[in-house]
Design brief:
483 residues; alpha/beta
Length: 483
């Protein structure tokens, strides 16, 4: 039996009011509405921590497993930064309390689109402290890097000052030198076996969807003769400002940020989308009316154009519930693995492509596992998605759920599905279980562990059963209250 060496979680969206891990209480201002209360952990978060404790309880060695937070952990787009930070503190209290830490003191944080700004902060820190500190006046300066190396080595990841400073406030205090440290990696982070024949790669996965590559698409439309980016650092260089602006800084935008959250919620219902589009078209027509075109005609044309555009975004972002990956994401995943990831592996692994590769990503909130053939990989790629922890659809979405992905000393990988939404909110969500799509010794080991210790898993199901309908009702209340 091998010890678990890596634990991967993504898409916790801590601080978001639609996160299953954010405690909600009745709003003091709006009757019938729930708002985030970061002062305490909610029941689902408590049960998640209990499940993690059990999963790690059979480790025999003294080395604790490494936690990899694989993006969209803090909700910086649809929640205030202070709220997200305080809910994150509650998670740390349950998993990394001084003297009772579940994980190694070095924690890797791989930002996603909703917490991308943590990478921007780290990138600037890297440039100032790792690069500028080694130059002298009048030296020619290189441009800042847009990614970290996939594997640890030449340039180590940089600290995440926000999270490290948060933990410095922990009570009771950590012993000197024992405080956990968060290191930022982006957008791909890999671990290899000693012989470098096996490799597991972690990536949030937002670039599998075309909306996050929008600046590249627009540039190609404006300059059709230009060369498309072939490397991940070029793709990030073209799109980082767009990703950071819309998906990672809105939570710091006061009332505007709250309105953007409301727009996102309204994308759930066709009637509300149509109302938003009509209001937007009317506003544009009023402000920028063409004198030779009747306003009614201009409004009608704009409405049709905006309807096509916003409906595409809505379907991609919040309505795609019938498949684990939309057609857009399927195509984007293939492109990402066969082009950007492949080239980074070659660059950072001395030109060699390991024969056994596992790719773990999140972002879609729909966990799945599959072994797939991809060009450039002799034996294909084992793909894991660890889902998410939000309720962001007006109707139940059985493919939506959350998992923890575990990797052992031999880089065997297993997905423990902790919940999936049921077909009806009146039913209990799917019970926690280990996926059997890709069977290996770690999968069998975890199946035995779970079957022999039912209490934490039953408690997780009960907590999710209570929280999912509550979250969905609150989502509906928010939309209706703004009508």
């Amino acid at each position: 039996m091998k010890d678990i060496r890596y634990v991967c979680l993504s898409d916790l969206h801590l601080g978001a009011e639609n996160s299953l891990l954010t405690r909600l209480v009745p709003s003091p201002d709006v009757p019938g509405m729930l708002v985030a209360d970061p002062s305490a952990a909610n029941e689902v978060m408590v049960r998640l921590a209990d499940c993690l404790k059990l999963l790690l309880s059979q480790n025999r060695g003294t080395q604790k497993p490494t936690l990899i937070l694989n993006g969209d952990i803090l909700e910086l787009a649809l929640a205030d930064v202070n709220t997200a930070a305080m809910v994150f503190e509650r998670f740390m209290e349950l998993t990394m309390a001084p003297g009772a830490e579940l994980f190694d003191r070095t924690i890797y944080y791989n930002p996603g689109n909703h917490d991308h700004h943590l990478w921007e902060t780290a990138r600037e820190t890297q440039y100032v402290e790792k690069y500028l500190a080694g130059t002298k006046w009048s030296d020619p300066l290189a441009a800042p890097w847009h990614t970290t190396n996939m594997f640890l080595g030449e340039y180590d990841p940089v600290p995440c000052y926000l999270l490290n400073r948060l933990l410095a406030r922990f009570e009771p205090k950590y012993d000197e030198g024992q405080q956990p440290q968060f290191l930022v990696v982006y957008p791909n982070f890999g671990v290899r076996s000693a012989d470098k024949l096996r490799c597991v790669i972690f990536s949030h996965g937002h670039y599998v969807e075309s909306i996050y590559r929008l600046m590249t698409t627009i540039r190609s439309m404006l300059f059709p003769d230009r060369t498309e980016p072939e490397l991940i650092w070029n793709l990030e260089a073209e799109n980082f400002a767009w990703v950071d602006f819309f998906w990672s800084t809105m939570g710091r935008s006061g009332d505007v940020g709250k309105d953007v959250e409301l727009i996102y919620d309204k994308l759930q219902t066709d009637a509300q989308v149509k109302k938003l589009i009509s209001n937007l078209a009317a506003g544009i027509t009023k402000q920028h009316s063409l004198p030779w075109v009747p306003q009614t005609v201009e409004h009608m044309i704009l409405t049709e154009v905006l309807n096509v555009m916003l409906d595409s975004v809505a379907c991609r972002e919040v309505k795609q519930t019938d498949t684990c990956l939309s057609a857009d994401a399927e195509s984007g995943l293939s492109d990402f693995l066969q082009q950007y990831l492949l080239k980074q592996i070659q660059t950072d692994n001395a030109g060699a492509i390991p024969g056994d590769i596992t790719f773990i990503f999140g972002h879609t909130h729909k966990p799945f596992e599959a072994a797939r053939p991809y060009a450039g990989y002799a034996n294909g790629v084992k793909v894991f998605n660890d889902g998410g922890w939000v309720v962001d659809s007006m109707t139940p979405a059985p493919l939506q759920g959350g998992a923890v992905v575990l990797v052992d000393e031999d880089l065997n990988t297993a997905s423990v599905r902790l919940y999936n939404e049921a077909a009806s909110d009146a039913q209990a969500p799917a019970a926690p279980h280990v996926s059997e799509v890709l069977v290996n010794p770690l999968v069998r080991q975890l199946q035995t562990l779970i079957s022999g210790n039912p209490a934490p898993w039953n408690a997780m199901t009960q907590a999710a059963s209570a929280e999912i309908p509550r979250q969905r009702a609150n989502l509906n209340a928010k939309i209706q209250a703004s009508c």
